[in-house]
Amino acid sequence: MPLDLVFLGRLDEVAGGGKRSVPLLPCVDAVVDSLEPRLREAIRAPKVKLAVNGILLQDTDAPILKDGDEIAFLPPVSGG
Amino acid sequence: MADCTNRSDVRLLVTPFVPAEELAAFTAQNQEAGGIVSFLGQVRAGDSVEALELQHYEPLTLPAMEDLAERIHGRWDLAGLLIIHRSGRMNPGDPIVLVAAAARHRRNAFAAADFAMDHLKSESWFWKREKKSGAWHWVEPREQDFEDIARWG
Description:
By secondary structure, chain A is of the alpha+beta class. Helices cover about 25% and strands about 25% of the residues of chain A. Chain A has a single domain (about 5-75), classed as Beta-grasp domain (Ubiquitin-like (UB roll)), CATH 3.10.20.30. The model of chain A has no long low-confidence stretch (mean pLDDT about 95). In chain B, strands 1-4-6-2 form a 4-stranded mixed β-sheet, with helices on both faces. Chain B has a 4-stranded antiparallel β-sheet with strand order 5-3-7-8. In chain B, helix 4 (about 105-125) runs antiparallel to helix 5. The model of chain B has no long low-confidence stretch (mean pLDDT about 90).
């Protein structure tokens, strides 16, 4: 099973869709490196947060990824 | 523990709701409260906005709203708390958010509803875009929202 990537907010537009599946890679950095440059740059912008399987990552977290994990890329929220 | 869970009604909806009906039901459930304060947020008409779309992320958005409700109960003595928030596409005039706080004393209800709105506006997991002249634009965070939340320390 591959990894599921979820792009929220403006990242949805940069990615050309809110969801995509990619082959399993061992860590989030490797996944981000594998993306097209424009999207990679948008994800590495300040204040973009990441969640793996619905758990928000803290700055120093570097989880080992496994089959079927979902990684969400969360730009700053625009409020309710 | 069961009596704790009844104090909050927190919902994330992807279909329209009728604020007056929700408020009537909430009021009926909280007859022992001396006061109920409510706030309704709706899609602003004008500014050439044709539609508004809110996007949420299932694993984070509702759990964070529920956490907020718990924090509010920890801070003020409330009989009940209602938080209803829309996601998905809306038109001008459509309700987006309804917050109501029921309390024995009105100041708790005013403060709790105010706190809920400030935190929903600046901290909740929603991404918003507007349709103007046929084109969609993402809405960036507002400085005013961060100033509003800073009031609470």
